[in-house]
Structure formats: structure tokens, C-alpha cells
Amino acid sequence: YNKVKVMIKEIKKNSKEVIRISQSEYKGHTFIDLRIYFEDEHGEYLPTKKGISFNPAIAEEIIEGIADVIEKNNWENFQ
């Protein structure tokens, strides 16, 4: 089966890594994929094994969980 992936957003993690948020489709099912990519010696970004794919049905819960962590830890000081 082919896996189709469409990048939605790229977030700089550090000088050599980015986090890519993608929508993918595998065996007729849609997923949200968060994956860390690293820059190789040629300046190209390659995927690492560090990441997670999940069904969009749970995306709202994941976002709420992240928001709860930020609120609990008062991370406004880290900006």
C-alpha cells in the first residue's frame, strides 16, 4: 500500500532539526503525523524515528492535553 503524505506545517526545533506536521493516508485511513526531521550534510531534511501518527478523531484531546500542560506549568515565562 502507498502512504500519501502532505506537509501542513514545519516548526524549527533547533539548528539542525524541525518538527513536521503532516496529513497522511495509509490503507484508506487518514492520520495526523508529527515527526522530527534532521538536516543532513547536503542540507536536506530526513525523517527520524522520533514521532507519532494518530487518528484525527483524537486530535482535539491531544491539543487539549498540551494546552493543559502549558496552563499548569505557566509556560508564558519560557517564550
Describe this structure in words.
The chain is α+β, with helices and mostly antiparallel strands. The chain has one helix at residues 59-73, and strands at residues 3-12, 17-26, 29-39, 45-54. Strands 1-2-3-4 form a 4-stranded antiparallel beta sheet, with no helix packed on it. The longest helix is centred in the C-terminal third of the chain and has 15 residues, at 59-73. It is flat. The chain starts with a strand and ends in a 6-residue tail after the last helix. The mean pLDDT is 90.
What labels describe this entry?
single chain, about 80 residues, alpha+beta, about 20% helix, about 50% strand
- Specify Rg, calculated over alpha carbons: 15 Å
Instruction: Output the structural class.
Output: alpha+beta
SSE string, helices as H and strands as E? EEEEH
SS field, number of helical segments: 1
Helix content: 10-25%
Low-confidence stretches: none
How is the main sheet built?
4 strands, antiparallel
Q: Give me the side-by-side strand order of the main sheet.
A: 1-2-3-4
Shape: flat
Mean pLDDT: 90
Overall number of strands:
4
- What fraction strand? over 45%
Distance between the termini: 42 Å
Spell out the blueprint of helices and strands.
Layout: E1 3-12, E2 17-26, E3 29-39, E4 45-54, H1 59-73
Antiparallel strand pairs: 1-2, 2-3, 3-4
